[in-house]
Design a protein that fits this description.
By secondary structure, this protein is α/β, with parallel strands linked by helices. The chain is about 40% helix and about 25% strand. It catalyses: (2S)-3-sulfolactaldehyde + NAD(+) + H2O = (2S)-3-sulfolactate + NADH + 2 H(+).
Length: about 475
């Protein structure tokens, strides 16, 4: 029996004429039906957000209490949310539970940051002629935030938009990914239970291109925050005019395994961080550059670690690698691998698809211009690339159009910092892979990986405006 969800607009559950069928990504059964927002519902959501922002002024402490309660309610309902993520995203149960724990953190951090929003003093009196003036800044909410989120973290990446937006005193219109909308709608129920005033949060499911365009053309929205592919991010950038746009986009994450690395540790970490959630994580390891002197040893340990990964039903608590978001996406990954093999690459493990499941795959003998190397594959596919000297390796790493996060394994700190200062990324992990993130850290990339930083403290800075106030004390 599939569940039915309506849209969350102005504190009410609103049904629409059309619906979206949300599939269980492993069984391909219909898991839920969700009302599909049309132009009327999106307009209602934006109108509700604007009216609520103008009429409801929650204190910082009230915002803190609501967000704290949402964090607690989330933890109390952990299994419901984990199950929702397993079913609609196909995420293995243990990783879905981890996502709920992280979103609990994200909302708790947002609650705490709600009490720390402030400006700073400005010593204008130090300027000649301003001896009798005082100045300081304050941070004010931007108003209505338009948020669009991706399928792969249907809870935590939504939390990273809603939490800071509410903490900062804004109202929000959220459009979750069409493949995974129900988790965000469940989250809206928690805000309702926590007493968030009507209209401050609105969730509209539906076509990204249609709703996205309508949101972008609506002047009542002050800031857009988008997480998704670079392709869509570019479209948004071209249509957003002068409104602030926060873009968290794609990556083809590099990891360097230096000749002085702990090979065992590097192999185990790369195996885990290349294939979690079937590689559908934007900081999933996709390119691993291995010093030629340790290539055989690293590869042997990497393949051993991959052999221990459990592939299959995401409902099984032992599963490490479940299905991809759709059979089309799994076929795309298969096509990219086959194209690489036709051009000389070798599959040392994997290269096999069963419906929506694509098995953990490692390629060697790849070339820079292969899509498995230079594009974002967003699948359980890893390319191992030997290197001779670190400078050439850094050049190859930086050839990517992306720059979100990278990693290097080495016991030589001089090498680590030499590399960290030269790679073009938003975050560089030493003795960890690219796929490291805790929710309080500043997170965001350079180049085609977007701009702006997420993490509640940093998102709040993006979702508020700093206003200067100068006091003239002259008699
Ligand atoms: N940098 C980061 O923090 C993250 C980046 N991503 C990236 O997201 C992608 C995978 O997620 P997907 O949901 O497949 O991305 P996507 O770009 O296909 O969709 C993302 C969201 O945008 C909406 N959308 C689609 N077309 C749109 C348009 N023309 N205008 C406005 N909205 C539109 C979709 O409905 C969805 O809600 C990968 O590229 C991945 O790297 C995913 C997670 C985190
Ligand atoms: O970018 C993503 O896909 C997620 O932010 C990765 S994380 O939250 O699991 O680090």
């Amino acid at each position: 029996m599939s569940e039915q969800f309506d849209l969350f607009i102005n504190g009410n559950w609103v049904s629409a004429d059309e619906t979206i069928e949300v599939l269980n990504k492993y069984t391909q059964d219909i898991y839920a039906t969700v009302s599909k927002a049309g132009e009327k519902e999106v307009d209602q959501a934006i109108d509700s957000a604007e009216k609520a922002y103008k009429s409801t002024k929650l204190s910082a402490y009230e915002r803190y209490k609501i967000l704290k309660q949402v964090s607690e309610l989330l933890q109390e309902n952990k299994e419901e949310f984990a199950n929702s993520i397993v079913k609609e995203a196909g995420k293995p149960l243990k990783q879905a539970r981890t996502e709920v724990d992280r979103a609990t953190q994200t909302f708790e951090l947002s609650a705490e940051e709600a009490k720390r929003i402030s400006g700073h003093g400005v010593p204008v009196e130090a300027a000649p002629g301003s001896e009798n003036r005082m100045a300081f800044t304050i941070r004010v909410p931007v108003g209505v935030v338009g948020a669009i989120s991706p399928f792969n973290f249907p809870l935590n990446l939504v939390a990273h938009k809603i939490g800071p937006a509410i903490a900062a005193g804004n109202a929000v219109v959220l459009k979750p990914a069409s493949a995974t909308p129900t988790t965000a709608l469940r989250m809206a129920r928690l805000f309702q239970e926590a007493g968030l005033p009507a209209g401050l949060l609105n969730v509209v499911a539906g076509s990204g291109s249609v709703i996205g365009k309508q949101m972008q053309q609506d002047k009542r929205i002050s800031v857009y925050t988008f997480t998704g592919s670079a392709e869509v991010g570019l479209k948004l950038k071209q249509n957003t005019g002068l409104n602030k746009l926060i873009l968290e986009l794609g990556n083809n994450s590099p990891v360097i395994v230096d000749k002085e690395a702990d090979i065992e540790k590097a192999a185990a970490n790369v195996a885990q961080k290349s294939f979690a959630f079937a590689g559908q994580v934007c900081i999933s390891v996709q390119r691993v550059y291995v010093h030629e002197s340790i290539q055989d040893s690293f590869q042997q340990k990497l393949l051993q670690a991959i052999k221990e990964l459990n592939v299959g039903d995401p409902n099984d608590k032992n599963t490490d690698v479940g299905p991809m978001i759709s059979e089309d996406e799994a076929k795309r990954a298969e096509d990219w691998v086959n194209e690489a093999v036709e051009n000389g690459a070798k599959v040392v493990v994997g290269g096999k698809r069963e419906g929506t499941v694509y098995y953990p795959t490692v390629l060697t003998d790849v070339q820079k211009d292969m899509r498995v190397v230079c594009d974002e594959i967003f699948a359980p596919v890893l390319c191992t690339i030997p290197f001779h000297d670190i400078d050439t390796c850094i050049e190859d790493v930086n050839e990517s159009p992306y720059g979100l996060q990278g990693g290097i394994f080495t016991k030589n700190l001089d090498t680590a910092f030499y590399v960290a200062k030269r790679v073009e990324v938003g975050g560089m992990m030493i003795n960890d892979s690219s796929q490291y993130r805790v929710d309080l850290m500043p997170y965001g990339g350079v180049k085609n990986s977007g701009w702006g930083k997420e993490g509640p403290k940093y998102s709040i800075e993006e979702m508020t405006e700093e206003r200067l106030i100068v006091l003239n004390l002259e008699e």
